[in-house]
Amino acid sequence: MFQIKEQDSSSGKELNETEINNLSDKEYKLILIRMLTDLGKRIDEFSENINKELENIKKGQVELKNTIMEMSNSLEGNNSRVDDTKECISDLNESVEESTQAEWKKEKRVKMNKDSLRDLWGNIKHTNIHIIVVLEGKERDKGAENLLEEIIAENFPNLGKETDVQVEEVQRAPNKMNPKRTTPRHIIIKMSRIKDKEKILKAARERQQVTYKGNPIRLSVDCSSESLQARMEWHDILKVLKVKTYNQEYST
């Protein structure tokens, strides 16, 4: 009977009240010990499972915490880069604005200088006369002053007797606008006195046709900025020639 009871208890079947009452103390204790032992094992297994679950939960929490920390660090890094980018853009905008202002001021200064130069040249060119359609080289053959004197003598003999014409400077206009031009370049004559220029041009208008050696020419007032450009170009040319001459003399 004890063996039967033991099998029933091990198989998990419950004993009825009659069977329990019929058990001896020894049998009852053995069954109770087995039940307690089995219960202890189950409790241990349950506790172990719970501990494993808790450990997994803790690991998951640690991983989640690390992930959140990484995301937070990444977000802070992105925010820092965004701030740096904004600062760089701000600095770039300031630099562009400063460059724009500097360029604007430079252009303004250049314009003011050009205007001043034009005003100055406007005063200077009042004494200039253009001689048009005179063959190249005549001013070299006769000399600049002699060329003008011959024109005056040929066309305005009375003016030549009344006026002591004084020439300050003579030059040909460069062929910058059209290097292949076939017509002679203008001769630009700078008079020492405005009144001499006015007398010559007045006489030319009254005569209507002016000639040189019988060939028609034209005398006109210097009313363009070409003369200014010509003077600047000749100044640069003479400067280069002066440097070359100095270098040749120094090398020899």
UniProtKB/TrEMBL annotation:
<protein>
    <recommendedName>
        <fullName>L1 transposable element RRM domain-containing protein</fullName>
    </recommendedName>
</protein>
<dbReference type="Pfam" id="PF02994">
    <property type="entry name" value="Transposase_22"/>
</dbReference>
<feature type="domain" description="L1 transposable element RRM">
    <location>
        <begin position="128"/>
        <end position="222"/>
    </location>
</feature>
<dbReference type="InterPro" id="IPR004244">
    <property type="entry name" value="Transposase_22"/>
</dbReference>
<dbReference type="InterPro" id="IPR043636">
    <property type="entry name" value="L1_RRM_dom"/>
</dbReference>
<dbReference type="GO" id="GO:1990904">
    <property type="term" value="C:ribonucleoprotein complex"/>
</dbReference>
<dbReference type="GO" id="GO:0032197">
    <property type="term" value="P:retrotransposition"/>
</dbReference>
<dbReference type="GO" id="GO:0003727">
    <property type="term" value="F:single-stranded RNA binding"/>
</dbReference>
<comment type="similarity">
    <text>Belongs to the transposase 22 family.</text>
</comment>
